[in-house]
Amino acid sequence: MEIINFAETPSLVSRYMLELRDVNIQKDPMRFRRNLDRIGEVMAYEISKTLSYNKVEVQTPLGTAVCDDIADKVVLATILRAGLPFHHGFLSYFDRAENAFVSAYRRYKEKGDSFDVLVEYLASPSIEGKTLIIVDPMLATGSSMELAFEALKLKGEPAKIHVASVIASRKSVDYISSHFPAEKTSVWIGAIDDEVNSHSYIVPGLGDAGDLAYGEKQDGN
Length: 221
Hints:
It is a single chain. The protein has about 220 residues and is of the alpha/beta class. About 30% of the residues lie in helices and about 35% in strands. The chain has six helices and twelve strands. Strands 1, 4, 5, 6, 7, 8, 9 and 10 form an eight-stranded mixed sheet that branches. The longest helix is centred in the N-terminal third of the chain and has 20 residues, at about 30-50. It is globular, with a radius of gyration of 18 Å.
């Protein structure tokens, strides 16, 4: 399984990541969403380099040009709700992709920090033989991503899988590596942090991406 960590090579993503993590800049939810969007655009461009292409003749006003066009059928899947602005960045570049949406959320137990991850909604086209890109800005444990993938597999078996995240824990990267088919999965991550606290939040991370993008929610869901 290929793991691509953008933090290993300083780039514009480094600046977007700085702003996402900064508690003062986080106070602007529109900028927070836009930075998720921009990282999605960069990752979409990089993933596009791995796809298959066909030669296509295009008529111009002065002649005929031979151009490359994406041959793969791409399905862009997102875990609600924090994944929406990240998804938008990908969709800006993969503008002809089909789209899938999965709800996966934590339901905390009455005592302690333990929780179950529940999947209650799935809207997806067939993914049979297609290139599946699953995006979620935070990968803390990897369990939500695995359950979302298992739900999507009800719609077929993809030919290629790309898992994309803004920040992941080392624990979640190891989990994805052992629970996804290694021979056809690539993982794209803006940064990898080493620690996950008792509440299963990434440290230093950036906090709750969904709350920062869309406002705080009730009931701890």
